[in-house]
Amino acid sequence: MARLRRTSVDSKEELRRLADEELMALVAGNDADAYEVVLERHADAAFSLAYRICGRRALAEDIVQDALLAVWRSGGRYDRTRGSVRTWTLGIVHNRAVDALRRSGVHERRRASDEGIEETLEADERTDSQAIENSTSLEIRGAIDVLPNEQRRVIELAYFGGFTHAEIASMLDAPIGTIKGRMRLGLHKLRDQLQGWETVGA
Amino acid sequence: MSLRESDFDCPHTPDAAAYVLGALEEGELRSYRAHLDGCTQCRAEVAALQPIVDELPASAAPARAPDALRERILATVRSEAAVLRAAGDEADRAPRRARRPRRRLAIGGALAAAGALAVILALVLSTGSGGGERVFQARVSAGAPGAHATLRQRDGRAELLVSHMPPPGVGRVYEVWLSRGAGDVQPTSALFDVTATGRGATAVPSDLRGIREVMVTSEPQGGSSRPTRQPLIQIALSS
Fold it and tell me: What is the interface pTM, i.e. ipTM, of the complex?
């Protein structure tokens, strides 16, 4: 297995100039400093996602710790042809968060997916929304906000609530085909709105 | 009459959205994955929608990862990196030798563990890098053949790292215990699981002052107040 090694003259500053993909090559060679830069870049997004899914601070921390250590330990398995480091990392966070929700039972999951009842974050964990909100998240949130309510709801219940289409169908008292249709329509509508974004998603 | 593309519409394409959202039931998921191998239309739909789902995390309300969380992750990563450096290729080679007999042994291993537990000698590895850092490494009991465990102590904090450990079992977790001498076993809050490749790590909540031995057992989820099984790992600390 080809593993890269840095020379000791590399400083943290030099590492920070590297692209994620280059850092991951170093992480595959067990370079903790390179990993630290990856962590700096994606820890907030990972925590935001885990918290959005499970709605509990302590559980979100456990999920992020588990997922980001998996990134460290399986850095060699990262394949840049299959997406960005961020997408790969957040995919791991998403999987583990949904697994945690499913283990905790339907009731908890329903609780977490209903808005407005999440545990309140401490002030220092809420970010200054102006500071962190980048154009990507503004754009995706804007696009989601203008979806028809029923389409937004099925997408959020599936992605952030960890529910299957059958569970959503029974929760909303609608046929499964209808639920799948709303998912499809909603995602296509998002795609249309975010057209020209391929370079971001790729 | 000319044929339109929709005449060949795959009836499964509407499932692509549920698939990329992770909303298919388990059985469906397996069959849809198999279906994707042979259906270009479904593959194209998945390829079109996956990038949209990949952007959904950005719609979560932004929150800052707590500093303590970052520090915990980094502490573990630095420990593992140090152990890998200290152990060099040794850590990679030893389990490979043990791999072949491991499966067979694992079956009888748990039973044998009680009697076959050997006294484990801890090796103090000189890491060369930092003053005040001590690394204790131990091979483990017959219940976990091929496994390695390492305890790293620095600045009054200790971290336990394991590799090539068997899973703790369904509904179970590994728990760390501290002993000050014969007959004394104190539970800790350190519970951990291992990855598919048998790696795991946990901070040991103790400065290890006066501790003679660190042990690990498999316990029911949530941990126990007294060990219910024989230890799989015992690390004797030279003081």
Answer: 0.85
Contact A52 B78 (CB under 8 A): no
Q: How far apart are CA B13 and CA B45, in angstroms?
A: 7
Q: Which helix (H) or strand (E) holds B45?
A: helix B40-55
Note the pTM of the prediction, 2 decimals: 0.62
Determine the residue type at B195.
T
Whether residue A48 and residue B63 make contact (CB cut-off 8 A), yes or no, is yes
Tell me the H-state helices in A105-197: 106-113, 129-132, 135-145, 149-159, 165-172, 176-193
Between CA A130 and CA B164 the distance in angstroms is 46
DSSP run (H or E) holding B148: strand B148-154
CA nearest to A55, candidates A103, A125, A113, A123: A113
8 A C-beta contact, residue B197 and residue A75: no
Counting one residue from chain A and one from chain B, the pairs whose CB atoms sit within 8 A come to 169
Closest CA to A154 of A132, A131, A174: A174
Tokens 């030798």: give the residue.
Answer: B97
pLDDT per residue, tens digit, chain A (202 aa), is: 445 555 544 578 889 999 999 999 999 888 999 999 999 999 999 999 999 998 888 899 999 999 999 999 887 788 888 789 999 999 999 999 998 888 876 555 555 555 444 455 555 555 544 444 566 777 888 899 899 999 999 999 999 999 999 999 999 999 999 999 999 999 999 999 887 554 444 3
Calculate the CA dihedral of residues B99, B105, B107, B113 and round it to 10 degrees.
-120
How far is A15 from A12, CA to CA, in rounded Å?
5
For residues B46 and A188, the answer to whether their CB atoms sit within 8 Å is no
- Cβ-based contacts of A39 with chain B (< 8 Å): 70, 73-74, 77
Chain A residue with minimum CA distance to B76? A69
Contact A76, A34 (CB under 8 A): no
Tell me whether residue B82 is exposed, middle or buried, using C-beta atoms within 10 angstroms of its C-beta: 0 to 12, 13 to 18, 19 or more: buried
The single-letter DSSP state of residue A21 is: H
